[in-house]
Amino acid sequence: MKFLNGGWLVKDGYSVKYAANVYEAKIEPKKLTLYCPFGSPIYNAGMTLDGGILTIEVTSPRPNIITTRLMNFKTDRSRCPGFRLNESDPDVRIEQTDEAWTFTSGRTTLRVAKGDTIDFQYLFDGKEIARSGWRAKALITDPEGSLHVSEQLDLGVGEKIYGLGERFTNFVKNGQSVEIWNRDGGTGTEQAYKNVPFYMSNRNYGLFVQSPGDVEFEIGSEKVSRVQFSLEDQEMTYSVIGGESMKDILNSYTDLTGKAPLVPEWSYGLWLSTSFTTDYDADTVMKFVDGMAERDIPLSVFHFDCRWMKELEWCNFEWDGDKFPDPEGLLAKLHERGIKVCVWINPYIGQKSPLFDEGVKGGYFIKRADGQVWQWDRWQAGMAIVDFTNPEAVEWYQGKLRHLMDQGVDCFKTDFGERIPTEGVVYHDGSDPMLMHNYYTQLYNKAVYDVIAEVRGADQAILFARSATVGGQRFPVHWGGDNSSNYPSMAESLRAGLSFGMSGFGYWSHDIAGFEDKPTPDLYKRWTQFGLLSSHSRYHGSGEYKVPWLYGEEAVEVAREFTKLKRRLVPYLVRMSHETHETGVPMMRAMVLEFQDDPTCEDIDTQYMLGDDVLVAPIFNEEGTARFYVPDAGGAHAGEAWKDLLSGQEYEPGRWYTQTYDYHTLPVLARPGSDPLGE
């Protein structure tokens, strides 16, 4: 939220109260409480009247994480949903000198200065990593009279900010305004399906705002030398996470919010979808499966999108009998061929669905303030939304999924979860609707993931999810949403995936060849290369089938070659998934995450590392030209050349390269000293 009018003035209609200094402090076991007057320091008893104070509580949920709670008025939080955090009992040291109070957890310290100016300095191993100083902590009243709590951290020279969820804008977030509010906005705008109030700085700190609400970030976009974050509420809690590196910070952050689990080995293979609005039936499905087999393109998962159910009845969780007279038999045929089955679902129940009346009778839907079921006509006519705060509704919904798994379904694509209303809405458990907007996806994906783990076993549980928030990494896999069939959209998809990985999520996929429109054969082949060198790989579209033979014989060859290349990489990918599970470092990672000490890597968003040892540079143009950078591997292999897995060509480190590639090649380089193909 922007509230200033230049460097000195405040926008019309806004009022701002800044915390001046620390007037008094209270030290308790593992807790430091600070009382900060607004406006100016208190010099006499008369100045304690009519001014108000900002109460600041400093605690630590885990080593190297320092949590600060800024409070105006203490309010009842019992109806506020919150992220599930894995708190431990770290050793904390609180000290006081004539100059400052210090609060230390692990190797991270907060130093709060005494005196007439407020000054919070964060250090790791004694080195400053972040700072909040003069006119940083504030209460802001907007023109509607709503109160916002705001904080600012200094943005240093050369400092760069990454993360904040799956964002399709510039990979480096400096200069951007970012609103943490899940929306179904496609991949071509500043809106995002997966908003995460967590960022990392190349100064080796992470910042996590512990609210599922509408947190707003101004990253050098109002005060150009500061990162500002604010929340409409009486209080805001945030954590500063110190570490040796951004990888170290991700490890600590995911220790707190949850690690990504291991996913089944079969999920790394190729997923083929029927696409969204295309006509298909049992014969179409088998023609696609047979076509892939005849062309020697290994298939791991077949995905049935929306129209496995009857139109206007999404979701009824019943196979359309006209198209699928024997669903159990069809799924058995797919299983006989070694193919897993995924079906599309969402948390919405159209009024025409046989389940609508059942859900109304059971009280399973979100309601309006007058007790009636909340409905609207966007997406499905008269649709209702399942209320996952109601345990009986969760069991009811899971029961429908259990029946599908009894029929042979292996996993679910959990679509939507972003269009969650906030006005005039009542939840079963009384949750605040504004805070439920982003948090809803967590309950939705958890309900589906849990029932798969129950029926199929935890080692076989996997989703294909679109929406997410903090902690959603515990319910993988996520895909990038509705992209378009062009090269700019392919590039924005990669940027989003890299930002997503910088936000604590270990696995990521995208619609190969684009969701909207029909791709050219050229784009289809180039996106196939990229898609099959991602952690998870799925052909999917809107109104167009995405089977390779529709795009020419060479597209078939490319699909075959890169599907088989990925199969050869599966042992390596499984090994990397253990690293993701244990450390929180994503499978697909930005160059800066792997090579943080190389300044050239700080801005690169057109190539990435697939695990520790494979550098991938997708091609984003019809000319087949790739421009890519080869870093120095460092360590025992410093100065050594990288080797292309496809051509065998070697590349000296520390240089940019520009080369042209045919459709059977692209830069896929192995780190010196590594053997990702196990040869």
UniProtKB/TrEMBL annotation:
Enzyme superclass (EC): hydrolase
Gene Ontology BP terms: carbohydrate metabolic process
Pfam families per record: Gal_mutarotas_2, Glyco_hydro_31_2nd, Glyco_hydro_31_3rd
GO molecular function, one term: alpha-D-xyloside xylohydrolase
EC id: 3.2.1.177
Domain Glycosyl hydrolase family 31 C-terminal: 584-674
Catalyzed chemical reaction(s): Hydrolysis of terminal, non-reducing alpha-D-xylose residues with release of alpha-D-xylose
Gene3D superfamilies registered for this protein in UniProt: Glycosidases (3.20.20.80), glycosyl hydrolase (family 31) (2.60.40.1760), Golgi alpha-mannosidase II (2.60.40.1180)
Occurrences of domain Glycoside hydrolase family 31 TIM barrel (ranges): 261-574
Domain Glycoside hydrolase family 31 N-terminal, residue spans: 55-218
Top-level taxon of origin: Bacteria
Protein keywords: Glycosidase, Hydrolase
PANTHER family assigned: GLYCOSIDASE FAMILY 31, MYOGENESIS-REGULATING GLYCOSIDASE
Family of the protein in this entry: Belongs to the glycosyl hydrolase 31 family.
Protein name: alpha-D-xyloside xylohydrolase
Protein's organism: Bifidobacterium bohemicum DSM 22767
